[in-house]
Each structure stands twice: as C-alpha cells, then as structure tokens.
From TrEMBL:
It comes from Xiphorhynchus elegans. One of its GO terms (molecular function) is DNA-binding transcription factor activity, RNA polymerase II-specific. This is NF2L3 factor. It holds the Pfam family bZIP_1. GO terms for cellular component: nucleus. Residues 2-49 form the BZIP domain. It comes from the Eukaryota.
Length: 106
C-alpha cells in the first residue's frame, strides 16, 4: 500500500509538472507575440519621429533665411519643455562631459 501511494504521489507530481510546462509554453508564445507587436510599434514610432524631424528641419531657417542643415544641427528638448536647435559638435562634447561626470560620481 505504501509503494502504491508513493507511485500515486509521483504520478500526480509528474502530471502537475507537465501541466506547468504546457502553461509556460503558452505563456512563452503569448510573450513572443507581445514582443513582436512592441517591436512593430517601436519601428512605427521611430519612423514617425524621423518624419517629424525631417519636417521640422525642412521648415527651419537661419538668420539669413537659409535652410538649417539637419546634418550639422540636432533638436534638443530640455527637461522643462524648452526646445533648442544645437550644433552637433556641441552636443557630442556635452555628452562626453556628462559621461565623464557620471563616471566620476560612481
């Protein structure tokens, strides 16, 4: 009787584990679909952002009325909501300084 009970417990444990595996496989497939949808959404948002960026630069003019070159300038949004057009070389140097400060603080 003890051996029979032991076999029954083992069989129940195996059945429970098989059910868990099946549930996890279903969850994995669901997460894969969600990941795929998120990737598509990110791609669409990046494309929209790129289109907006191009549209903004197509309308910008410097002091002499010439179009602003998007290869030389970037759009910078500050934390308080202000938007600036900054030369790329200044942004790169600021990022280097920011990274150096962050490393020094660590």
């Amino acid at each position: 009787v003890a051996a029979q009970n032991c076999r029954k417990r083992k069989l129940n444990a195996i059945l429970n584990l098989e059910e868990d595996v099946c549930n996890l496989q279903t969850q994995k497939e669901s997460l894969k679909k969600e990941h795929s949808q998120c990737s598509r959404s990110i791609s669409q948002i990046k494309q929209k952002l790129n289109n907006l960026y191009c549209d903004i630069f197509s309308r910008l003019r410097d002091d002499q009325g010439r179009p602003v070159n998007p290869h030389q300038y970037v759009i910078h949004c500050s934390g308080n909501g202000s938007i600036f057009i900054i030369p790329k070389h200044l942004v790169k140097s600021e990022q280097k300084q920011g990274n150096t400060k962050e490393q020094n603080q660590k």
